User: Fold these one by one.
Assistant:
Number 1:
Amino acid sequence: MILIADSGSTKVEWNILSKQGIIESAVTSGINPFYQDAANIEHILREEFSSLQREFDAIYFYGAGCINEEKQDIVTSALLRVFSTREIYVGSDLIAAARSLCQDKPGIACILGTGSNSCYYDGEVITGHVSPLGFILGDEGSGAVLGKKLISDILKKQLPAPIIHEFFENYHTTSTEILENVYKRPFPSRYLAGFAGFLSKNILNREIEQIVLTSFRDFVTRNLLQYPESKYSPIHFTGSIAYYFETQLRKVLEEQNLKIGQIKQAPMQGLVLYHQRNITQ
């Protein structure tokens, strides 16, 4: 049996997998080694991992923040304190997206969620990567950037008055409170991404849809077209923004005659398929 984890800063989805399929699933609080040390992660695993199963042939942990050996070692250390296993693999959420969406075939894998990211995957490893740079300098097409563009247009009165009125009625907030959350409180990207629901609700409004289309066009120009392989490779997406704004995303990709692949809300289903092929028992 193997254990697969798909981790974000908010929650971790766990699946125990055998050759026959998923045996058991669990959900725990989010794990991100940028913000938690091994002791904190161990505490979450001991307190919240509901399965009694603690021995596995292999553990595959994919997560936000697991981008280098130092951060990966933090997660590995915590896993070894809680589970017994012969093999542990800790990788980034980007390799999770690539394996989930491309399986063992070449392609471009993209994440459009709170942040954005992309890579070229040759069917085994990531061989090309354009740095996303975060929501201040980059993260085009992400929930954080969509929220940033919406808030900017709201506060500068660039949207129709009924839309602005609906926004403040819906969120019961003020410009002062918004600026406080963006500039002085933790996790501003998560705060801004929280306004993506307003964009989705009002997507039939021309000005609102234009915010989404413009951000997706920026993602294509500043990220996807930097890959020479984008001219002929399928381009796949995972993440809530890609999923809920699929119509706008497809429109922008078609404008550039790009080959559209899968668009999935989350990577776990694909990860299960990827790893199930390699289970021996």
Number 2:
Amino acid sequence: MKKRLEKLDGILVAPGFGDRGIEGKIKGVQYAREHNIPFLGICLGLQCAVVEYARNVLGLPHAASSEVNPNTIDPVIDKMEDQKDLTNLGGTMRLGAYECKLKKDSKSYSAYEKKKISERHRHRYEINSNYIKSLEDAGMKAVGFNPATELVEIMEIPSHPWFVGVQFHPEYKSTVETPHPLFVAFIEACIEERKKQTSKTYKLLEIAN
């Protein structure tokens, strides 16, 4: 894992369903978090980030999404209560555009440069609100909320150079001519971190010489 990731300028964990490759994605998130590599998690990517943080920072080794492990004792990712009795798969999904309010002291607000946004969704599982306070107390902050339901849409780690996870799909609104603000901010963070690493290399070379 280290050999594959240590030279990367950024790590993006993309959307998906089910348990395929999930533990590898969680390890990738952990590497990005622990090595200060810019990270962007989209939908499942956000959920992997929350699971990783719960396991390795909160000390909940069995934390999981109930999609992957329905019997987990710590379902940090779960269906909303009003979805659990539905059997029609389409009825259990949150689809379409929803508003999101951003906290001003966040990377996401800096990217959008506005307090209220609207983004498209396509998912069944949400961050379990029962764990939000514990996550925040441990350093992972909820910075984006749906104003109607109070569901968390965006999580960040302020102490990290750039660590952002979003429940929605920014790729749905991104084009070549008008790239999504989060993608632009993510790439800028990757470039900035690369400059820092290059500067460190030059300093080491100067010392060696």
Number 3:
Amino acid sequence: MTNDPDPSVASPEGQAPAGNASFGFRDVPAAEKAGLVARVFESVAPRYDLMNDLMSGGVHRLWKNAMVDVVHPRPGEKILDVAGGTGDIAFRMLRGQGDRPDVTVCDINPAMLEVGRDRAVDRGLLQGLTWTTGDAERLPFPDRSFDAYTIAFGLRNVTDIDKALADAYRVLKPGGRFFCLEFSKVTSAPVGRLYDAYSERALPFFGKVIARDADSYRYLHESIRRFPPQRELAARMRAVGFANVGWRDMSLGVVALHQGWRI
């Protein structure tokens, strides 16, 4: 885990002008982004997990397992998984036998939650799991409600990252842990060029062939390119109050697992 003691933060590369938000490579009025993102995920929900396997060669499973290992959910803990509609992270946290944590999945998109509920029933996971529709920037939970907060590949889709981070801090108990798994800045320039070329071409291609929606996967590629790099996101976490902020690069920084604590 990399700790970044430098509290400074540069102006975000590619940041949208005031009053706007990034939607892929486009800047759109901030009020419109949530609706645009909702349409993307309504379209891709039925094949979302299959597409993740195809696009990453199954490596996303290793990234998610590593995240859950670091979270180390304990029996009786209350854990909030945000933007986790299809249940991939929640199911991993409930794999153990005996006493388990109490996991709440919160997603703004009902179509993704519907997929998750169906998958939970298929797995016989009917207890210790709650499904809630909610916006990461305005979570429908009281202050200091959860022992841990997780968000995997969802933070780049919110309209205002800083508002989402601040609300994550709000709903955590003192001593609560924040974990964000997200695509990030590749640390090797040659690998970065190959990765960018692959994602630019492969995501829309798989989207067209498998999900019948090239445009949605073109947006997902573009949203990865515009997401803040590791050091900047760490600084923004500290700015809303998180302490002991750090990150762990995976696959040479293709993704990074960020962590912070509410004090």
